[in-house]
Write a structure and sequence with these properties.
This protein is α+β, with helices and mostly antiparallel strands and 304 residues long. The chain is built from ten helices and six strands; from the N terminus they run ββααββββαααααααα. It has two domains: 2-237, Beta Polymerase, domain 2, CATH 3.30.460.20; 239-300. A six-stranded mixed beta sheet has the order 1-2-6-5-4-3, with helices on both faces. Helix 5 runs parallel beside helix 8 (200-263).
């Protein structure tokens, strides 16, 4: 548990809450049993619900697992009371940890975050969390640039898997970001007792930040889809070239095999010209002429 107190506000952050910590919060803030149940079980969708003693918000942030190369939603349970902001999450939430560190080390940031009500503190944290998505999208764009360079270096086959990883990251991001807007819209439309009416402009700014992140992600998605089409086209071209080459070789081989079969048949040995010692060389020249003829034809048609 980490606590930041400044002026009349307190921010409490709990990572991997124990039963004792949850019960402590229940007793101190008189939490509703439904809230306690939510704090001890995962929530699949973000939402905001008001209770007698707090406003409960479920928020998801995109987190990245470097080992599995997987973007996943990190659930963040938020409790807002008259003078407390409580954030609860399972596992390390690096963006949230960075925000707390910034507030502790930067007096100007602390003054800005704790300058008003708990609603202003909530806005400050949310704005930083949403904005933290932009560097993650920049990291995806770096992967996209790498994939693009490799594709035009002739490594199309190897990039099929890399493109799949990038598309999975973007898909996960979209699933996490899209429901967030509805939360902030509900904060504007509904009158929650623990949030002042004059915060609507702040929540509108959060919606704008969310839209900016979404548009950046959409641009990346369009680039990746275009690269995938290009990669598939290049792969198809190489496959067609290989099939064309194999077909040409097969046709030449088949023709030569038929020629050898004809001249190797037993009855043909009864012919006088077949007994001539120059017949072998004539047949060999004939076969070479067939090969050269086919090669010239294929080259003219640009099949080889």
């Amino acid at each position: 548990m980490k606590i930041i107190k400044y002026k009349n506000l307190t921010w409490i952050d709990i990572e991997n809450p124990t039963t004792r910590e949850v019960l402590g919060l229940k007793e101190k803030f008189n939490l509703h049993p439904l809230v306690v149940d939510e704090l001890t079980s995962p929530s699949q969708r973000p939402r905001a619900e008001e209770f007698d003693t707090c406003l409960y918000i479920v928020f998801h942030t995109p987190l990245f697992n470097k080992t599995k190369r997987l973007t996943y939603p990190g659930e963040l349970d938020i409790l807002i009371t008259a003078d407390h902001l409580i954030t609860i999450h399972q596992g390390e939430n690096i963006p949230l940890k960075s925000i707390m560190k910034m507030i502790e080390e930067d007096e100007l940031a602390k003054e800005k975050a704790f300058s008003g009500t708990v609603g202003i503190l909530f806005y400050f944290v949310m704005e930083k969390l949403i904005s933290s998505c932009l560097p993650k999208i920049d990291h995806i764009n770096e992967k996209v640039d790498f994939v693009e360079n490799e594709i035009f270096k002739g490594n199309e086959k190897e990039m099929v898997k890399e493109l799949s990883f990038v598309k999975r990251d973007i898909l996960a991001f979209r699933r996490i970001l899209k429901p967030q807007r509805s939360i902030f819209e509900s904060l504007i439309q509904k009158k929650y007792r623990f949030l002042e009416d004059n915060l609507n402009d702040y929540f509108q700014d959060l919606i704008g930040t969310n839209i900016r992140v979404w548009n950046t992600l959409e641009n990346t998605k369009e680039v990746v889809e275009s690269l995938e089409e290009t990669n598939n086209s290049l792969l198809s071209y190489k496959i067609n070239e290989a099939m064309r080459f194999l077909t040409a070789i097969s046709l030449i081989t088949f023709t030569l095999s038929v020629t050898v079969g004809i001249f190797g048949m037993a009855p043909i040995e009864s012919f006088d010209w077949a007994k001539d010692q120059n017949t072998f060389w004539l047949v060999l020249i004939f076969m070479n002429a067939i090969t050269i003829g086919f090669l010239s034809f294929f080259k003219k048609k640009r099949w080889l």
